[in-house]
Design a protein that fits this description.
mainly alpha
């Protein structure tokens, strides 16, 4: 009775740890996303490249540049001064036409690689300033007058020169043209505290679910398969939850926060690009869950799982084949790199170790269930497997008799043992 109670409490605690692990896994995906998207300059540079390469986003940036230009330069007044007295009435229509021309010119300008590089450089420079500020470097606060800004001033100058609106544009535009305020000085202290906390949490939080799951499996002695299934389903559910929240949050931002219908296509594309890392985290959780479900099936007592282990047993018995195949599969995954997590060295190392541990546990289970697998000829095993895959499965009795004959030839079975096994086999078949 006491043993049953202890077992029940171990299972309860194991399930609680699995639930906590899944919750922490979701939190680690979000923390990792914020850390890299907000604080990692190479990630920001890649995102800026993707943003300016998107047609909708690029067109919206072009419209913003034109707005900045025409809001700081009175084009109609300049045209009136330049036109002859009898044509000054044309200044208004010409200014409108010039606005349309500027829109087209801005879009063409932003399609140029050198101009896109200038845009990316502005984003990266601003991000580097922001990171330095968040690391308690206050010098830039004084230099920027209390703000971190995104400086698009050079792009506005290039646009004005391209359409030749007025002369000496660089001298006539105010210094703050094209400057977007990112953060005020009075917001800095809070942002710095949150940044330091995020760096510490995001660096190690992703390891916590692995630890919790390992403890849960250790507690669930005798019922580990059910806990492993719970972990797998929890990871799949967590990944799908992350993907769903990203989708719903994007719909809310685009449909409710963005007020202009004209801006919504660009906002939707920008949201998709800016949250791509979050989607990668969700798909990574789903992938880990699916792999775990495959492992649950492969080690389980189902007819298909047992048959699969029987087919794999001769190959699993050779450690060089088992681990070599596992290494090739893992290498192919790394070459594919379906999500950004598969490029993070610490994550790759941990998952490789867990994958190797799973292969070893499968090898030991197969060795217990099929102890004679090590003596099976691999070529015969492969021929039998291919025959079954083609649908021309040989009679099971013939296969077993052939296997017994090989064991007798190798000296594993004596004549008496061979005869006994034949009688048992034929009797069972009958």
């Amino acid at each position: 009775m006491a043993a049953e109670t202890a077992t029940r409490w171990r299972m309860i605690l194991a399930r609680v740890l699995v639930v906590l692990g899944v919750i922490v896994a979701v939190a680690s995906v979000i923390a990792g996303y914020v850390r890299y998207q907000a604080l990692d300059t190479p990630t920001v540079k890649k995102t800026a490249d993707q943003l300016i390469a998107d047609d909708q986003v690029r067109n919206q940036v072009a419209a913003t540049l034109v707005d900045q230009l025409f809001s700081h330069v009175n084009v109609q007044a300049d045209l009136q001064r330049r036109l002859p007295p009898d044509q000054k009435a044309l200044a208004g229509p010409l200014a409108g036409a010039l606005r349309e021309l500027s829109d087209r010119a801005a879009r063409q300008l932003l399609e140029r690689p050198r101009v896109q590089a200038l845009w990316v450089a502005s984003i990266v420079r601003t991000h580097e300033q922001l990171v330095r500020l968040l690391d308690n470097n206050l010098t830039l606060i004084r230099q920027e007058g209390g703000f971190v800004v995104l400086d698009l001033h050079p792009l506005v100058i290039q646009l004005g020169d391209r359409v030749a609106v007025v002369g000496n544009l660089a001298q006539r535009l105010p210094a703050d043209t094209g400057r977007v305020e990112i953060m005020k000085a009075d917001q800095l202290k809070t942002a710095q505290d949150l940044t330091q906390l995020l760096k510490q949490v995001a660096m190690f939080l992703w390891l916590v679910p692995f630890v919790l799951f390992a403890i849960a499996l250790w507690l669930a002695r005798g019922r580990r398969r059910s806990i492993l299934r719970m972990i797998a389903l929890g990871l799949v559910a967590a990944g799908l939850l992350v993907l769903l929240v990203r989708r719903l949050a994007g719909d809310y931002v685009v449909d409710n926060v963005v007020k202009s219908d004209a801006v919504r296509p660009a906002a939707r594309d920008a949201w998709s690009i800016l949250t791509a890392l979050l989607a990668d985290g969700g798909w990574t959780l789903v992938g880990l869950g699916v792999v775990s479900l495959v492992a649950v099936w492969l080690v389980g007592p189902s007819l298909s799982g047992t048959a699969s282990r029987r087919e794999l047993a001769p190959f699993l018995a050779r450690w060089e084949i088992a681990f070599g195949t596992a290494a090739v599969l893992f290498l192919l995954l790394e070459l594919w790199r379906p999500t950004v997590q598969t490029t993070r060295v610490p994550f790759v190392i941990v998952t490789a170790l867990l994958f190797g541990l799973g292969v070893e546990l499968l090898r030991r289970q197969a060795a217990r269930e099929f102890p004679d697998a090590a003596s099976v000829d691999l070529s015969d095993s492969m021929r039998g497997t291919f025959a079954r895959l083609r649908g021309s499965r040989p009679d099971a009795r013939v296969e077993d008799l052939q296997r017994l004959g090989r064991l007798r030839e190798q000296g594993v079975l004596t004549d008496e043992e061979l005869a006994a096994e034949k009688r048992r086999l034929l009797g069972t078949a009958a």
